[in-house]
Amino acid sequence: MSATVHKGGAPYYYVPGPSRHPMMAAFGLFFVILGAGQWVNGVNWGPYAVAFGLVWWLVVLKQWFGEAIRESESGLYSDRIDLSFRWSMAWFIFSEVMFFASFFGALYWARVHSVPALGNFENALLWPDFKAIWPSMQAGATASPAGTVEPFKIMGPWPIPTINTALLLTSGVTLTIAHHALRENLRGRCITFMWATVILGTVFLGVQGYEYYHAYVDLNLKLTSGIYGSTFFMLTGFHGMHVFVGMLMLLFITLRLQKGHFTPERHFGLEGAAWYWHFVDVVWLGLYIVVYWM
Predict the structure, then answer these.
(1) Arithmetic mean of pLDDT, 222-246
(2) Confidence bin at 256 (pLDDT 50/70/90)
(3) Mind listing the pLDDT tens digit for each residue in 49-71?
(4) Are residues 155 and 217 in the same domain?
(5) Average pLDDT for residues 33-44, to the nearest whole number?
(6) Is 25:64 a contact under the CB 8 Å cutoff?
(7) Are residues 187 and 218 in the same domain?
(8) 34: exposed, middle or buried (Cβ count in 10 Å: 0-12, 13-18, 19+)
(9) Whole-number pLDDT of residue 4
(10) The CA-based dihedral angle spanning residues 165, 170, 171, 173, taken in that order and rounded to the nearest 10 degrees
């Protein structure tokens, strides 16, 4: 049941009425996961299920977020709601930290334990030509003795990953400038630097798309290229997905700024998106060092 709104101010803690949005969003995600599972197994209708689920999910999110924006702009959100948003975003980012920690952990375990274990005496009798060396540590150690993995070249740090690192670090600077501009009530400057951040994020995704093309065509580095290929694409691919989500957050915040939303005193929408974007930057720095340099 919704909280009573007193004339002249926001309720102590606004509680919206029952909503259909969570159930409808879950319905769309069901088709995304179902279709993705069938797609990777070669089922023809898999891609169509993914597309249907994504479109459904995006339409629901547009309606859901639009409703939340209207509630915010109508003055229903008090300081208590603002505090709840901050805690919610902090825990969400913590869950993302653990998500990426699992992939970094998988990479560590493969490099330090699994691959060396495959080079022990017993396995040497079975696969005498196997090189128990991580591909980035020795050239030519990328082929499978049994022929299940084709030879491939690794992705080095120069030039594509380094260019993307510069793009993301620059975007963090432009976003910080935009945030400080809004706090100083310089809305025009804030919008300019927000658009710069969105453009930098979009360029990053374009460069990463080219990186994947280069990996598949020129390096023969694929998702099927053993544990190196799978960890490389899982880590960089999921990070790219997070960049895409963060870029959408910043885009919608920028559009809201152009409509006059947010004030120097109340603008957690921008702050929350900025937290997420800086988190994505930090994860990329870890990727850049561990995946491309080591």
Answers:
(1) 94
(2) very high
(3) 999 999 999 999 999 999 999 99
(4) yes
(5) 94
(6) yes
(7) yes
(8) middle
(9) 47
(10) 130
Domain hosting 11: range is 1-77
Considering the domain architecture, whether residues 132 and 163 belong to the same structural domain is answered as yes
**Contact between residue 60 and residue 30 where contact means Cβ atoms under 8 Å apart:** no
Nearest CA-CA partner of 248 in 173, 190, 198:
198
| 232 and 152 both lie in a single domain | yes
Residues 130 and 23 in one domain: no
- The number of folded domains in the chain is 2
Q: What is the pLDDT of residues 119-167, one digit of tens each?
A: 787 777 777 777 788 888 876 666 676 677 888 999 999 999 999 999 9
Q: Are residues 142 and 273 in the same domain?
A: yes
Pair (62, 124) in one structural domain? no
Query: What's the whole-model pTM score?
Result: 0.89
Looking at residue 148, which CATH number applies to its domain?
1.20.120.80
Residue 7 pLDDT grade (very low, low, confident, very high; cuts 50, 70, 90): very low
**CA–CA distance, 166 with 174 (Å, rounded to integer):** 12
Report the mean per-residue pLDDT for the chain. 92
- Of the candidates 259, 268, 279, the residue with the CA atom closest to the CA atom of residue 191: 259
- Where a domain ends, among 77, 105, 133? 77
Q: Residues 193-202: what's their mean pLDDT?
A: 98
